[in-house]
Amino acid sequence: MSNNVTRLIETLRASESGVPKAWTPTEAELGTPLPGDYKELIDRMGGGRVEEYLYLLEPDSPNAHYDLVRHARERAEAYEEIWEIEEKPPELAAEGARILPWGTTDNGEWLFWRALPGQHPDAWTVMLNEARGETWEHYDMNCTGFLRAALTGDIQSDVLWSRFPLPRHVFVKFSPTP
Fold it and tell me: DSSP states of 48-105 as a string?
């Protein structure tokens, strides 16, 4: 078990009620393995809403609106079109660099892994994109490290909502959509 994941779950005061996923089909569909910290977090806690604002995507989410694979496809298509008219962030300038979403927000910001060619998924870092804008932020840490640092105030994002994090941390696991 990862200390980062354990500390994040403790920070959120979340129950460990996740259902282990079958990661092989998900990774095959995405065309890449996923970071171990993320897989452990989802297996232990599940996806859900953090601070009544940020949505932690998960594969085969009980809430179809927050399915990791669906959003990975949609974001890839959307950014391919966007980058025909806007410049890519410099962190993605390397040939073959890509982003893969792992979270989104009520306001429409996106949280991504930045995957560089030949890089092991556990070395992927975090990029944020403002809602409907060209502002990007890059954090040289994994997704669980980023979430914990954002929740404890160790880092402050200019892209995320100014009221994030809440004074008392809240995590609500996804439930099935009607």
Answer: EEETTTEEE-BTT-SSGGGBHHHHHHHHHHHHHHHHHHSPPPGGG-STT-EEEEEEEE
Report the percent of the chain where pLDDT is more than 90. 85
Reading the block at residue 63, the tokens are 């809430």
Q: Half-sphere exposure of residue 41, counting CA atoms within 13 Å on the CB side?
A: 30
Peptide bond into 167 cis (omega under 30): no
Tokens 């962030």 -> residue = 89
Strand (E) or helix (H) holding 125: strand 125-129
Q: Is the pLDDT of residue 65 over 70?
A: yes
The pLDDT value given to residue 2? 78
Beta strand 171-173 pairing with 98-105: unpaired
Segment 41-58, tens digit of pLDDT = 999 999 999 999 999 999
Phi, psi of 61 (to 5 degrees): -60, 140
